[in-house]
Amino acid sequence: MLKDPARIAVMVSGGGTNLQALIDAEKKGVLRSGLIELVISDNPEAYAMERARENGIEAVFTKDENEMISLLEDHGIELVVLAGFLKILSPDFIRRYPERIINIHPSLIPSFCGKGAYGLHVHEKALAYGVKVTGATVHFVNEIPDGGRIIAQKAVAVEENDTPETLQRRVMEQAEWKLLPAACEKVSAKIRRERMGK
Ligand code: GAR
Predict the structure, then answer these.
(1) Which of 33, 151, 172, 174, CA to CA, is 20 to 30 A from 159?
(2) Distances from the Cα of 18 to the Cαs of 8, 12, 96, 144, in angstroms?
(3) In the chain, what are the domain boundaries?
(4) Tens of pLDDT, residues 70-113
(5) Is the beta carbon of 145 within 6 A of some atom in ligand 1?
(6) What's the fold here for domain 6-195?
């Protein structure tokens, strides 16, 4: 870990395998310009919160955006990472963090994205369409759902007998769990450089 890492909050709604990938990347030094300080969940049952606590990271459940903003401010958060966070944030929230909120989406944007395209549904849509290549995208969050500038993408092959579940797993293993830590490192490094006036 580098000195004065960018302070990261991860926002989650579910199982938190992407959060786990970030925690593991931090341990391995893949993520070294940023440190996860806080996890916020809008789902009280999210297993992601347990993953956070097991790793000594504060995890808070709230559905209230004002409370989310207070938490981010109290923790001096500089980068917000949406890792399987399924609530659409309000324009007011998003405007507070220009190019400081990033999201992972389980397709190659602009395919199979936007409002209502989340989790397993994304893979159902990809299979129904018959695409032979899908993947994952990390992008900045703006006021258009899945519409912000793309930071990184990785393609994954669709196989003959794929179900939404097998495809979801392959996209996670081959793309998401590598792409998100790498993108977090890139944006965190930029935040540190800007802070140091470079
Ligand atoms: C991930 O596949 C992520 O890309 C997706 O939800 C899953 C969360 O899994 N996000 C979206 O669909 C956002 N539109 P996880 O809780 O195990 O990280």
Answers:
(1) 151
(2) 14, 9, 24, 23
(3) 6-195
(4) 999 999 999 999 999 999 999 999 999 999 999 999 999 999 99
(5) no
(6) Rossmann fold (3.40.50)
